[in-house]
Write the structure tokens for this entry.
Amino acid sequence: MNGSLPSTARIVITGVGLTAPNGDDLATFRQNLLAGVSGIEPYNIRYFGDTIAGVCHFDPTVHQKRKDIRNGTRAGSIAIHCANQAIADSGLNWQRCDRSRVGVYLGITEHGNVETEAEIHNLRQFDYNLRYWSHFHNPRTVANSPAGQATVNLGITGPHYTIGGACAAGNLGIIQGVQQLQLGEVDLALAGGVSESIHTFGIFAGFQSQNALATHPDPTRASRPFDLDRNGIVIAEGGAIFTLERLHDAVDRGARIYGEIIGYAANSDATDFVLPNPQRQGECIAAALRRANLRPDQIDLVSTHATGTSAGDIQECVALRQAFGQTEEKFETCFNNCKSFIGHAMGAAGALELAGNLPSFDDGIIHHTINLDKPDPECAVPGIMVAGRPMAKTRIETILNNSFGMLGINSVLIVGKYK
């Protein structure tokens, strides 16, 4: 279908592909979230040394030749793994799809740092003789590289690009896919976020310089959002990509529908490079609710952004209280956090966190937040702790997904159970 469509066209999720530190497909990821299984492990990165990270363990050779893996990037391999899995999960007849009408929209935090650092490291072994500089450096480091590698792998000739939105990018990739479908620019969107952040020592050094890098004798207990003993971020890699379709197309082909995108919003703090602005975050939540035509009390589950930093978690809780209210008696919304399991997957975070919660529509269960042993009183929000074990709820029909990033970029996505 070409040309423009009404902006009210309903957009649904029909496939999910992912890799996370504790699972390389949705079923395993969900199982480990419900079982309280962490994916944080000891890790060593050149120049920085021993640390901890959320490391993915998917096999890139399933969808790529070894030559393509060498010439490409880790983020590209993640995108290819997730995109192939999402298409397979959607039940689409890929051989019959018009690939000129497929778009790829991926959120990223940063891209290219890993490749340039690695190239300089390798060049040092040859006394910086530029003869040994790889001619694949430029295609590896252009910002569209992860999305572009997916199109090459899958033979997609429709549009592709990445959305640089810091740690709000996973949501922004999905929002872009929704908008392009509603505009009639594409008939199928592969949308989400990817990250290869653990492969650059610079990001570890940067968070260390800000005193924002988590430490703990037990790596699985290091990521502890909202906990009084939290001491920073655990950096993770990963990705999640969704197949998005217009509702009538999905219904016509008898697709399974995971959920419907019913609201979204993005805004900017315009106040600080790093410190979040809770007022702007609250305004972003409110804008998404207005677009979805929902009241705060109609949200069943909020997937929080909280990263485990001292100030960031508190600021988000101020925003949550602003958006959802203060009193326990009126509070039925539940809140959880996925970063406690896998760390902060940066540009992939929002997409992964949404994926981990989507099955709640079917099983009526909300995964808990691990490592929340001593709740910080400054992070007090009624309903924020789904403590001890997964919580069964009689009705889960709406999920609100928060993702916020540096330079004050905020994104909120609301998904509803398809009826």
